[in-house]
Amino acid sequence: MFLVAAASLMTGNFVPVFASVIYGDTNIEPVAITLVSQYVEALTRITVTHPTVIQSVSLYLQYTDSDGSQCIKFGIYKDNSNGNPLNQSLVAATQNGYCLQMTTSWGPAWETWNLTQSDFMTINTPGTYWLCTLAEEAYGTIYHYTYTGAYGGYYLYNYGYYGGYAFPASYTLGFPPTVFGNTTYGNFLIVPYNSNNIGQYNAPYSFYATGT
Question: What is the pLDDT of residue 88?
Fold first, then answer.
């Protein structure tokens, strides 16, 4: 890497080399909730400062008696500058599903999937985005943030935000090109899961991605 950078400097064609960067929530959040099947769920908002290629994803999960066939696809949607992904376009998504371990008991613990090269998710433009899941089955639980006050809606809290934006989608068809608008996708009519455009649960979820 040093030789390549040095040669680039000598020729005047410097190409920046970025170290691995983690995007998302690496905290172990306190509240467990079931992953919803056949729904796109926008779970964690991220900020990207330079073009990046996502090569792995991690979820903090707990599940039992998995036969290894419970799989999840991952995607990234843009933020609409109002703190949610409503009516925004799909930036990248995996074509393949990544499955839970075949085990009698898992976690709660981090589970990481290294994406195959054909599933690397590229973000070309710095900005704010949402990490999303599309689970084939409702199986296992993922952990997420909750309010710190007795009446959360009336209290400021340290880093949480409204999240849990979701809408029905086909695991087989994959992530729709645009989300949360009244649009037709295959034979599905996509409508917002939350009519007031406010998430059912509070984010972020214990969900992060690693990129270059």
Answer: 87
